[in-house]
Amino acid sequence: MENNRNRYDEMLGVPDGGQFSSGTAALLKLAKALFYLLTIGIGIMLVWFFTLGGFFIVDSTRESVLLLHFGKLKAQYNEGWYWVFPYPVNTIIKVPKSNQTIRSSTFMPADRKSLLERRNEGEGGASPQPLTPGKDSFLLTGDNSIIHTEWELVYRVANPSQYYTTCLTPARPLDPDEVVKGPDGESLGTRGATTLIKNLLDDAVIKVTARWNIKNILYDRTNDYINEVKVLLVKNLSDRQLGISVESLSLPVKRPPLLTIAAFDEAASAGTQAAIETENARAYAIETANSAKSESAEIIANAESYRKRVVAEVIADKVYFMKLLEEYNKNPESVLVSLYSTTLADSMAKVKDKFVIGLTPGSRQELRLKLNPEPVIKKNQDNTAKDQKP
Predict the structure, then answer these.
(1) What's the CA gap between 161 and 163, in Å, rounded?
(2) Residues paired with 75 in a beta bridge
(3) Which CATH architecture has domain 103-117+136-256?
(4) Dihedral over Cα of 103, 109, 111, 112: its sign
(5) Backbone torsions φ then ψ of 134, nearest 5 degrees
Protein backbone atom coordinates (compact mmCIF):
# COMPACT_ATOMS: atom_id res chain seq x y z
CA MET A 1 0.00 0.00 0.00
CA GLU A 2 2.85 2.29 0.84
CA ASN A 3 4.54 1.53 -2.46
CA ASN A 4 1.35 2.41 -4.36
CA ARG A 5 1.08 5.72 -2.55
CA ASN A 6 4.70 6.55 -3.32
CA ARG A 7 4.10 5.68 -6.96
CA TYR A 8 1.14 8.12 -7.16
CA ASP A 9 3.17 10.77 -5.42
CA GLU A 10 5.94 10.41 -7.92
CA MET A 11 3.46 10.63 -10.82
CA LEU A 12 1.97 13.82 -9.43
CA GLY A 13 5.41 15.26 -8.72
CA VAL A 14 4.69 15.65 -5.04
CA PRO A 15 7.65 15.01 -2.75
CA ASP A 16 7.11 12.64 0.11
CA GLY A 17 5.81 14.50 3.14
CA GLY A 18 4.99 17.66 1.13
CA GLN A 19 2.17 20.09 1.82
CA PHE A 20 -0.18 18.38 -0.73
CA SER A 21 0.35 14.83 0.46
CA SER A 22 -2.81 14.71 2.67
CA GLY A 23 -5.06 16.14 -0.08
CA THR A 24 -3.71 13.72 -2.61
CA ALA A 25 -4.38 10.82 -0.29
CA ALA A 26 -8.00 11.98 0.24
CA LEU A 27 -8.49 12.35 -3.52
CA LEU A 28 -7.21 8.84 -4.06
CA LYS A 29 -9.62 7.47 -1.46
CA LEU A 30 -12.52 9.29 -3.10
CA ALA A 31 -11.56 7.95 -6.53
CA LYS A 32 -11.39 4.42 -5.16
CA ALA A 33 -14.80 4.80 -3.49
CA LEU A 34 -16.35 6.08 -6.71
CA PHE A 35 -14.78 3.23 -8.63
CA TYR A 36 -16.25 0.68 -6.21
CA LEU A 37 -19.69 2.33 -6.36
CA LEU A 38 -19.57 2.38 -10.15
CA THR A 39 -18.60 -1.28 -10.22
CA ILE A 40 -21.46 -2.19 -7.87
CA GLY A 41 -23.93 -0.11 -9.92
CA ILE A 42 -22.84 -1.79 -13.15
CA GLY A 43 -23.20 -5.18 -11.48
CA ILE A 44 -26.71 -4.36 -10.25
CA MET A 45 -27.69 -3.11 -13.70
CA LEU A 46 -26.39 -6.30 -15.28
CA VAL A 47 -28.31 -8.41 -12.78
CA TRP A 48 -31.49 -6.37 -13.37
CA PHE A 49 -30.97 -6.51 -17.16
CA PHE A 50 -30.79 -10.29 -17.19
CA THR A 51 -33.55 -10.86 -14.60
CA LEU A 52 -36.33 -8.36 -13.78
CA GLY A 53 -35.62 -5.96 -16.63
CA GLY A 54 -37.20 -8.18 -19.27
CA PHE A 55 -39.76 -9.99 -17.11
CA PHE A 56 -43.47 -9.26 -17.58
CA ILE A 57 -46.84 -10.95 -16.96
CA VAL A 58 -49.78 -10.78 -19.39
CA ASP A 59 -53.36 -10.86 -18.09
CA SER A 60 -55.61 -11.88 -20.98
CA THR A 61 -58.69 -10.33 -19.36
CA ARG A 62 -57.15 -6.87 -19.24
CA GLU A 63 -54.57 -6.44 -22.00
CA SER A 64 -52.46 -7.80 -24.80
CA VAL A 65 -48.70 -7.20 -25.06
CA LEU A 66 -46.86 -6.40 -28.29
CA LEU A 67 -43.12 -7.01 -28.51
CA LEU A 68 -41.05 -4.65 -30.65
CA HIS A 69 -37.56 -5.88 -31.51
CA PHE A 70 -35.41 -2.82 -32.30
CA GLY A 71 -38.63 -0.96 -33.17
CA LYS A 72 -40.10 -3.66 -35.41
CA LEU A 73 -43.19 -5.64 -34.36
CA LYS A 74 -42.05 -9.17 -33.60
CA ALA A 75 -44.70 -10.96 -31.50
CA GLN A 76 -47.96 -10.62 -29.59
CA TYR A 77 -48.53 -12.15 -26.15
CA ASN A 78 -52.02 -12.74 -24.76
CA GLU A 79 -51.54 -14.82 -21.59
CA GLY A 80 -48.74 -15.96 -19.23
CA TRP A 81 -45.35 -14.64 -18.08
CA TYR A 82 -42.33 -14.00 -20.29
CA TRP A 83 -38.75 -12.73 -20.29
CA VAL A 84 -37.08 -10.84 -23.12
CA PHE A 85 -34.09 -8.55 -23.40
CA PRO A 86 -35.25 -5.15 -22.17
CA TYR A 87 -34.94 -1.77 -23.86
CA PRO A 88 -33.19 -0.82 -26.12
CA VAL A 89 -33.18 -4.34 -27.56
CA ASN A 90 -36.91 -4.93 -27.08
CA THR A 91 -39.83 -2.65 -26.32
CA ILE A 92 -43.05 -3.79 -24.67
CA ILE A 93 -46.34 -2.16 -25.72
CA LYS A 94 -49.42 -2.88 -23.57
CA VAL A 95 -52.71 -2.59 -25.45
CA PRO A 96 -55.76 -2.57 -23.12
CA LYS A 97 -58.77 -4.79 -23.93
CA SER A 98 -61.23 -2.70 -21.94
CA ASN A 99 -63.89 -0.64 -23.70
CA GLN A 100 -62.85 2.83 -24.82
CA THR A 101 -65.24 5.75 -25.26
CA ILE A 102 -65.09 8.58 -27.79
CA ARG A 103 -67.52 11.50 -27.61
CA SER A 104 -67.81 13.56 -30.77
CA SER A 105 -69.11 17.14 -30.49
CA THR A 106 -68.03 18.06 -34.01
CA PHE A 107 -71.51 19.16 -35.06
CA MET A 108 -72.40 21.28 -32.03
CA PRO A 109 -72.57 25.10 -31.95
CA ALA A 110 -70.12 27.28 -30.06
CA ASP A 111 -72.77 28.01 -27.40
CA ARG A 112 -73.22 24.33 -26.63
CA LYS A 113 -74.47 24.92 -23.09
CA SER A 114 -77.47 27.01 -24.17
CA LEU A 115 -78.47 24.41 -26.73
CA LEU A 116 -78.28 21.57 -24.19
CA GLU A 117 -80.31 23.53 -21.65
CA ARG A 118 -82.79 24.56 -24.39
CA ARG A 119 -82.58 28.19 -23.30
CA ASN A 120 -84.02 30.97 -25.43
CA GLU A 121 -81.14 33.28 -24.61
CA GLY A 122 -77.46 32.97 -25.34
CA GLU A 123 -74.39 33.82 -23.32
CA GLY A 124 -74.74 36.87 -21.08
CA GLY A 125 -78.54 36.81 -21.32
CA ALA A 126 -78.57 38.07 -24.91
CA SER A 127 -80.92 36.74 -27.56
CA PRO A 128 -79.55 33.79 -29.51
CA GLN A 129 -77.74 34.73 -32.69
CA PRO A 130 -77.84 33.01 -36.08
CA LEU A 131 -75.25 30.34 -36.69
CA THR A 132 -71.85 31.60 -37.82
CA PRO A 133 -69.98 29.45 -40.37
CA GLY A 134 -66.50 28.60 -39.13
CA LYS A 135 -67.55 29.11 -35.52
CA ASP A 136 -70.73 27.07 -35.13
CA SER A 137 -70.85 23.53 -36.46
CA PHE A 138 -73.95 21.76 -37.75
CA LEU A 139 -75.25 19.06 -40.10
CA LEU A 140 -77.33 19.39 -43.27
CA THR A 141 -80.16 16.89 -43.65
CA GLY A 142 -81.67 15.48 -46.83
CA ASP A 143 -84.57 17.98 -46.69
CA ASN A 144 -82.19 20.98 -46.45
CA SER A 145 -82.62 21.41 -42.70
CA ILE A 146 -79.99 22.10 -40.03
CA ILE A 147 -79.46 19.87 -37.03
CA HIS A 148 -76.93 19.58 -34.20
CA THR A 149 -75.83 16.17 -32.93
CA GLU A 150 -73.42 14.79 -30.36
CA TRP A 151 -72.35 11.14 -30.58
CA GLU A 152 -70.87 8.64 -28.14
CA LEU A 153 -68.94 5.65 -29.48
CA VAL A 154 -67.87 2.70 -27.32
CA TYR A 155 -65.30 0.39 -28.91
CA ARG A 156 -62.60 -2.10 -28.02
CA VAL A 157 -59.40 -3.30 -29.63
CA ALA A 158 -60.11 -6.68 -31.24
CA ASN A 159 -56.77 -7.08 -33.05
CA PRO A 160 -53.92 -5.38 -31.12
CA SER A 161 -51.24 -5.98 -33.78
CA GLN A 162 -53.40 -4.55 -36.54
CA TYR A 163 -54.51 -1.69 -34.31
CA TYR A 164 -50.94 -0.68 -33.42
CA THR A 165 -49.48 -0.90 -36.92
CA THR A 166 -52.42 0.81 -38.69
CA CYS A 167 -53.29 3.54 -36.21
CA LEU A 168 -49.67 4.45 -35.33
CA THR A 169 -50.51 4.07 -31.66
CA PRO A 170 -48.01 5.61 -29.19
CA ALA A 171 -46.07 3.51 -26.69
CA ARG A 172 -48.88 4.12 -24.19
CA PRO A 173 -52.14 3.66 -26.14
CA LEU A 174 -54.28 5.30 -23.45
CA ASP A 175 -52.35 8.57 -23.66
CA PRO A 176 -54.05 11.50 -25.45
CA ASP A 177 -53.34 11.95 -29.13
CA GLU A 178 -50.37 14.06 -30.17
CA VAL A 179 -51.12 17.75 -30.67
CA VAL A 180 -49.83 18.99 -34.04
CA LYS A 181 -48.53 22.58 -34.05
CA GLY A 182 -47.92 24.92 -36.96
CA PRO A 183 -44.80 26.95 -37.79
CA ASP A 184 -45.89 29.73 -35.41
CA GLY A 185 -46.75 27.33 -32.60
CA GLU A 186 -50.50 27.40 -33.22
CA SER A 187 -52.43 24.18 -32.66
CA LEU A 188 -53.46 22.48 -35.89
CA GLY A 189 -55.33 19.63 -34.21
CA THR A 190 -54.43 16.19 -32.95
CA ARG A 191 -53.04 13.06 -34.55
CA GLY A 192 -53.45 9.50 -33.35
CA ALA A 193 -55.79 6.53 -33.06
CA THR A 194 -58.57 8.41 -31.25
CA THR A 195 -58.55 11.22 -33.82
CA LEU A 196 -58.63 8.72 -36.68
CA ILE A 197 -61.62 6.83 -35.26
CA LYS A 198 -63.46 10.06 -34.44
CA ASN A 199 -62.95 11.35 -37.99
CA LEU A 200 -64.33 8.10 -39.43
CA LEU A 201 -67.37 8.46 -37.16
CA ASP A 202 -67.92 12.06 -38.28
CA ASP A 203 -67.61 11.01 -41.92
CA ALA A 204 -70.29 8.34 -41.47
CA VAL A 205 -72.59 10.82 -39.69
CA ILE A 206 -72.28 13.39 -42.50
CA LYS A 207 -73.02 10.86 -45.24
CA VAL A 208 -76.00 9.27 -43.50
CA THR A 209 -77.55 12.56 -42.35
CA ALA A 210 -77.51 13.87 -45.92
CA ARG A 211 -79.99 11.10 -46.85
CA TRP A 212 -82.45 11.62 -43.95
CA ASN A 213 -85.05 14.29 -43.17
CA ILE A 214 -84.99 16.09 -39.87
CA LYS A 215 -88.40 14.84 -38.68
CA ASN A 216 -87.33 11.21 -38.88
CA ILE A 217 -84.03 11.96 -37.13
CA LEU A 218 -85.56 13.91 -34.25
CA TYR A 219 -88.82 12.06 -33.65
CA ASP A 220 -89.99 9.21 -35.85
CA ARG A 221 -87.01 6.94 -36.68
CA THR A 222 -84.13 7.93 -34.46
CA ASN A 223 -83.04 4.33 -33.77
CA ASP A 224 -83.00 3.49 -37.49
CA TYR A 225 -80.90 6.58 -38.11
CA ILE A 226 -78.36 5.57 -35.44
CA ASN A 227 -78.21 2.00 -36.77
CA GLU A 228 -77.48 3.23 -40.29
CA VAL A 229 -74.62 5.40 -39.02
CA LYS A 230 -73.28 2.43 -37.06
CA VAL A 231 -73.36 0.13 -40.10
CA LEU A 232 -71.44 2.65 -42.21
CA LEU A 233 -68.92 3.24 -39.42
CA VAL A 234 -68.27 -0.49 -39.02
CA LYS A 235 -67.73 -0.74 -42.76
CA ASN A 236 -65.26 2.16 -42.72
CA LEU A 237 -63.30 0.62 -39.86
CA SER A 238 -63.28 -2.79 -41.56
CA ASP A 239 -62.14 -1.35 -44.91
CA ARG A 240 -59.18 0.36 -43.23
CA GLN A 241 -58.32 -2.75 -41.15
CA LEU A 242 -57.96 -0.89 -37.87
CA GLY A 243 -58.55 -3.97 -35.69
CA ILE A 244 -61.40 -2.25 -33.83
CA SER A 245 -64.78 -3.69 -32.79
CA VAL A 246 -67.71 -1.29 -32.25
CA GLU A 247 -69.55 -2.15 -29.03
CA SER A 248 -72.25 0.55 -29.12
CA LEU A 249 -73.13 3.87 -30.72
CA SER A 250 -75.55 6.32 -29.12
CA LEU A 251 -76.90 9.78 -29.86
CA PRO A 252 -77.18 11.62 -26.50
CA VAL A 253 -77.88 15.01 -28.10
CA LYS A 254 -80.01 15.81 -31.14
CA ARG A 255 -81.36 19.34 -31.45
CA PRO A 256 -82.49 21.78 -34.11
CA PRO A 257 -80.84 25.24 -34.04
CA LEU A 258 -81.55 27.29 -30.93
CA LEU A 259 -83.53 29.93 -32.87
CA THR A 260 -86.00 27.32 -34.13
CA ILE A 261 -86.16 24.99 -31.15
CA ALA A 262 -89.42 26.52 -29.87
CA ALA A 263 -91.11 26.00 -33.24
CA PHE A 264 -89.92 22.40 -33.33
CA ASP A 265 -91.28 21.87 -29.81
CA GLU A 266 -94.68 23.19 -30.88
CA ALA A 267 -94.66 20.97 -33.95
CA ALA A 268 -93.65 17.98 -31.86
CA SER A 269 -96.41 18.75 -29.34
CA ALA A 270 -98.98 19.01 -32.14
CA GLY A 271 -97.72 15.78 -33.64
CA THR A 272 -97.95 14.07 -30.26
CA GLN A 273 -101.50 15.33 -29.74
CA ALA A 274 -102.46 14.22 -33.23
CA ALA A 275 -101.00 10.80 -32.54
CA ILE A 276 -102.97 10.60 -29.28
CA GLU A 277 -106.21 11.58 -31.00
CA THR A 278 -105.56 9.14 -33.82
CA GLU A 279 -104.89 6.38 -31.33
CA ASN A 280 -108.05 7.23 -29.39
CA ALA A 281 -110.08 7.18 -32.60
CA ARG A 282 -108.53 3.87 -33.57
CA ALA A 283 -109.31 2.45 -30.13
CA TYR A 284 -112.91 3.73 -30.36
CA ALA A 285 -113.28 2.21 -33.82
CA ILE A 286 -111.98 -1.12 -32.58
CA GLU A 287 -114.25 -0.97 -29.52
CA THR A 288 -117.30 -0.09 -31.64
CA ALA A 289 -116.53 -2.82 -34.16
CA ASN A 290 -116.09 -5.37 -31.39
CA SER A 291 -119.36 -4.27 -29.75
CA ALA A 292 -121.20 -4.52 -33.07
CA LYS A 293 -119.71 -7.96 -33.68
CA SER A 294 -120.75 -9.04 -30.18
CA GLU A 295 -124.31 -7.78 -30.62
CA SER A 296 -124.51 -9.32 -34.07
CA ALA A 297 -123.30 -12.65 -32.74
CA GLU A 298 -125.84 -12.46 -29.88
CA ILE A 299 -128.72 -11.70 -32.26
CA ILE A 300 -127.69 -14.47 -34.61
CA ALA A 301 -127.35 -16.89 -31.69
CA ASN A 302 -130.82 -15.96 -30.36
CA ALA A 303 -132.36 -16.29 -33.82
CA GLU A 304 -130.71 -19.66 -34.31
CA SER A 305 -131.91 -20.79 -30.89
CA TYR A 306 -135.48 -19.61 -31.68
CA ARG A 307 -135.37 -21.36 -35.04
CA LYS A 308 -134.27 -24.60 -33.46
CA ARG A 309 -136.98 -24.31 -30.76
CA VAL A 310 -139.77 -23.63 -33.27
CA VAL A 311 -138.60 -26.44 -35.51
CA ALA A 312 -138.47 -28.78 -32.51
CA GLU A 313 -141.98 -27.76 -31.44
CA VAL A 314 -143.33 -28.26 -34.95
CA ILE A 315 -141.69 -31.66 -35.16
CA ALA A 316 -143.11 -32.58 -31.75
CA ASP A 317 -146.60 -31.42 -32.82
CA LYS A 318 -146.27 -33.38 -36.00
CA VAL A 319 -145.32 -36.53 -34.09
CA TYR A 320 -148.23 -35.96 -31.67
CA PHE A 321 -150.77 -35.45 -34.44
CA MET A 322 -149.48 -38.43 -36.36
CA LYS A 323 -149.88 -40.60 -33.26
CA LEU A 324 -153.32 -39.10 -32.65
CA LEU A 325 -154.34 -39.72 -36.25
CA GLU A 326 -153.18 -43.29 -35.98
CA GLU A 327 -155.29 -43.81 -32.82
CA TYR A 328 -158.26 -41.99 -34.36
CA ASN A 329 -158.20 -44.25 -37.35
CA LYS A 330 -158.34 -47.22 -35.00
CA ASN A 331 -161.10 -45.94 -32.67
CA PRO A 332 -162.59 -42.53 -33.57
CA GLU A 333 -165.12 -42.29 -30.69
CA SER A 334 -162.61 -43.00 -27.96
CA VAL A 335 -160.23 -40.44 -29.36
CA LEU A 336 -162.95 -37.82 -29.64
CA VAL A 337 -164.14 -38.41 -26.05
CA SER A 338 -160.55 -38.20 -24.83
CA LEU A 339 -159.92 -35.01 -26.75
CA TYR A 340 -163.21 -33.53 -25.54
CA SER A 341 -162.40 -34.39 -21.93
CA THR A 342 -158.88 -32.93 -22.20
CA THR A 343 -160.13 -29.76 -23.83
CA LEU A 344 -162.92 -29.36 -21.29
CA ALA A 345 -160.49 -29.88 -18.41
CA ASP A 346 -158.10 -27.31 -19.82
CA SER A 347 -160.85 -24.75 -20.32
CA MET A 348 -162.47 -25.33 -16.92
CA ALA A 349 -159.14 -25.08 -15.12
CA LYS A 350 -159.29 -21.33 -15.46
CA VAL A 351 -162.92 -20.96 -14.21
CA LYS A 352 -163.30 -19.87 -10.60
CA ASP A 353 -166.82 -21.23 -9.82
CA LYS A 354 -168.14 -24.30 -11.50
CA PHE A 355 -171.80 -25.61 -11.52
CA VAL A 356 -172.65 -29.01 -12.94
CA ILE A 357 -176.33 -29.53 -13.80
CA GLY A 358 -177.48 -32.94 -14.94
CA LEU A 359 -180.25 -33.36 -17.50
CA THR A 360 -181.20 -37.03 -16.90
CA PRO A 361 -184.90 -37.43 -17.91
CA GLY A 362 -187.34 -38.70 -15.24
CA SER A 363 -184.97 -38.17 -12.31
CA ARG A 364 -185.02 -35.70 -9.46
CA GLN A 365 -182.65 -32.85 -10.07
CA GLU A 366 -180.93 -30.92 -7.29
CA LEU A 367 -178.84 -27.78 -7.53
CA ARG A 368 -176.63 -27.18 -4.52
CA LEU A 369 -174.87 -23.84 -4.20
CA LYS A 370 -172.22 -22.88 -1.69
CA LEU A 371 -173.26 -19.56 -0.22
CA ASN A 372 -170.74 -16.95 0.55
CA PRO A 373 -167.68 -19.03 -0.31
CA GLU A 374 -164.37 -18.00 1.12
CA PRO A 375 -162.32 -16.19 -1.50
CA VAL A 376 -159.27 -18.10 -2.59
CA ILE A 377 -157.16 -14.94 -2.74
CA LYS A 378 -158.06 -14.05 0.86
CA LYS A 379 -157.18 -17.50 2.03
CA ASN A 380 -153.87 -17.38 0.25
CA GLN A 381 -153.08 -13.96 1.84
CA ASP A 382 -153.88 -15.29 5.33
CA ASN A 383 -151.58 -18.27 4.80
CA THR A 384 -148.83 -15.94 3.66
CA ALA A 385 -149.25 -13.75 6.77
CA LYS A 386 -149.01 -16.81 9.04
CA ASP A 387 -145.82 -17.91 7.34
CA GLN A 388 -144.26 -14.49 7.86
CA LYS A 389 -144.93 -14.41 11.65
CA PRO A 390 -141.76 -14.82 13.73
Answers:
(1) 5
(2) 67
(3) 2-Layer Sandwich (3.30)
(4) negative
(5) 90, -20
